[in-house]
Amino acid sequence: MNLKNYFSDKIGVGVISTANDKGEVNGAIYAKPHVLGDETIAFIMRDRLTRANLQHNSLAHYMFIEHEHGFHGVRLSLVMKEEIKDKETIASLSRRSTMGNDEDEERYLVSFKVQKAIALIGGKEIEFH
User: Residue 38: left if φ>0, alpha if ψ -120 to 50, beta else—which one?
Assistant: First the structure.
């Protein structure tokens, strides 16, 4: 599977799950990731619970459910690589404009190494490149 091609062709909903240093889990709806390389994806995040959890525990999980008949999609095991606050880079990757009260809120580009890809249903590992 080519991650860039996969996410450019699919429509669906994604959920990123993180846990804090006590193991308390959080799940949040997130758009499709930005694919930055063969094994690197990134999300634009605000300073909320998902980002706060990543400050203490760099492991995350992203589940993407395709909008098709049946249950299709992918589950990605992730480890955080870095975050940047460069406004120009983030603006160039943003898929929607910031409007209303959110425009002054700091945004971060958080990148992850994809450690493993698994089919949405079952345990079949998917090779990616």
Answer: alpha
Q: In what order do the strands lie in the sheet with 25-30?
A: 25-30, 12-19, 59-66, 73-84, 107-119, 40-46, 34-37
Q: What domains are defined for the chain? A: 3-119 (2.30.110.10)
What is each CA distance from 33 to 24, 42, 70, 77, 126, in whole angstroms? 24, 6, 22, 13, 17
Closest by alpha carbon to 78, among 22, 24, 3?
Answer: 3
Q: How far is CA 106 from CA 34, 45, 47, 68, 126, in A?
A: 19, 9, 7, 35, 35
Q: Is the separation of the CB atoms in 57 and 18 below 8 Å?
A: yes
How large a percentage of the chain has pLDDT more than 90? 80
Can you give the pLDDT at residue 1?
87
How many angstroms separate the Cα of 100 from the Cα of each of 47, 56, 94, 103? 17, 30, 16, 6
How crowded is residue 3: how many other Cβ atoms within 10 Å of its Cβ?
22
pTM: 0.90
